[in-house]
Amino acid sequence: MRLADWGADAPLLRAVREAVFMIEQGVPAELEWDGLDPDCAHALALSARGEAIGAARLTPDGHIGRMAVLAPWRGQGVGRALLEAMLSEARRRGFPQVALNAQTHAQGFYQRFGFARQGDEFPDAGIPHVRMTLGL
Ligand code: COA
Fold first, then answer.
1. CB of 131 sitting under 6 A from ligand 1
2. pTM surpassing 0.85?
3. Regions of the chain where pLDDT drops below 50
4. Which residue, by CA, sits nearest to atom 11 of ligand 1?
5. Which residue has its alpha carbon closest to ligand 1 atom 29?
6. Distance 79 CA to ligand 1 centre (A)
7. What domains can you pick out in the chain, each with its CATH number?
8. How do residues 5-26 score in pLDDT, each as one tens digit?
9. How much distance in Å is there from the Cα of 40 to the middle of ligand 1?
């Protein structure tokens, strides 16, 4: 797990997100590539062989998102490492809180880290989401 730079690491970060969001979940390209990536901090998880297996980002306004772990690598702590990297980057930047729009099925994952749900479910890219926040 390491912090990543969109300029250098975009092909690896894009490959993970294409596999998880576009191919597995059916998110259209124009929603996945929203233009924010060059301005975000990124985290990239690599296997021991150097394959890209996970990705996440932190936007300049303190939103964590695009958390993705390739299906065969889930349940092994990769998502935890990505989220902890983004939280520590948010603290380093002095953000008082972080927010995210969680796919509803993943809210239990974020709750483990202290995120609290705010308000009602809403659709985004055809997938049910809930807003969650965490004070830092
Ligand atoms: N609901 C509740 N708890 C969950 C969970 C879920 N969907 N997914 C993982 N957890 C728990 C794990 O059991 C583990 O608990 P532990 O610390 O007590 O052992 C902890 O959260 C960390 O799990 P980890 O193995 O690090 O998670 P992961 O590598 O499987 O990554 C996701 C989690 C959500 C990033 C991954 O499932 C994924 O990429 N899903 C598809 C894309 C997606 O939906 N992303 C979320 C967009 S909001």
1. no
2. yes
3. none
4. 109
5. 79
6. 6
7. 2-96 (3.40.630.30)
8. 999 999 999 999 999 999 999 9
9. 22
